[in-house]
Amino acid sequence: MFEGLRQPVVWTLLDESALRRRIGSSEVMATQLHKIAGMAEAGRLRLPVLPHRVGAHALLQGDLTLMSCEDSAPVAYVEGFSTGNLMDDPSLVRASQTAYALALSDALSQQESRALVRAAAEAHAHAEQ
């Protein structure tokens, strides 16, 4: 698909809350977010962010991982509090893919997302412990 691409590219769709909620110290958050922004700038990570202004969205209720390989049918893994479910039923996988596409359509562009990640990192870096 991408000739010359040696390293895998990870796609992740983040809710802005994941950038703003401090887990650990402000320094740890700032460092992690700068690292994530750097990976996105290097092309190793596609990082669309769903801003708070979107409100409720199709993926708000849990984590969704979509997986596809050249030699097998796609699957979806949905995770919530104390539960996880691997789905291989084509109709459920398509529904999961549709939910992802709907949420992705509300996300910021790559450039806007990277700027938001950097801004969140700076906010954490300047926050009081």
What do you see in this structure?
- It contains 4 helices and 7 strands; from the N terminus they run ββααβββββαα.
- The radius of gyration is 16 Å and the shape is globular.
- The longest helix is centred in the first third of the chain and has 16 residues, at 26-41.
- Helix 2 (26-41) packs antiparallel against helix 4 (110-125).
- The protein has helices at 16-20, 26-41, 90-105, 110-125, and strands spanning 10-11, 14-15, 45-46, 49-50, 63-69, 72-80, 83-87.
- The mean pLDDT is 89.
- It has 129 residues and is α/β, with parallel strands linked by helices.
- The strands form 3 sheets. Strands 5-6-7 form a 3-stranded antiparallel β-sheet, covered by helices on one side. A two-stranded parallel ribbon has the order 1-3.
- It folds into 2 domains: 1-57 and 107-129, no CATH class; 59-105, no CATH class.
- Helices cover 41% and strands 22% of the residues.
- The N and C termini lie far apart (46 Å).
Radius of gyration: 16 Å
Walk across the major sheet and give the strand order: 5-6-7
List the uncertain runs: none
Order of helices and strands: EEHHEEEEEHH
Keywords: DNA-binding
Protein name: DNA-binding protein
Organism: Streptomyces corchorusii (Streptomyces chibaensis)
Pfam families: DUF5753
Task: Walk me through the topology.
Elements (H helix, E strand, L loop, with lengths): L9 E2 L2 E2 H5 L5 H16 L3 E2 L2 E2 L12 E7 L2 E9 L2 E5 L2 H16 L4 H16 L4
State the gist of this model:
With 129 residues, this protein is α/β, with parallel strands linked by helices.
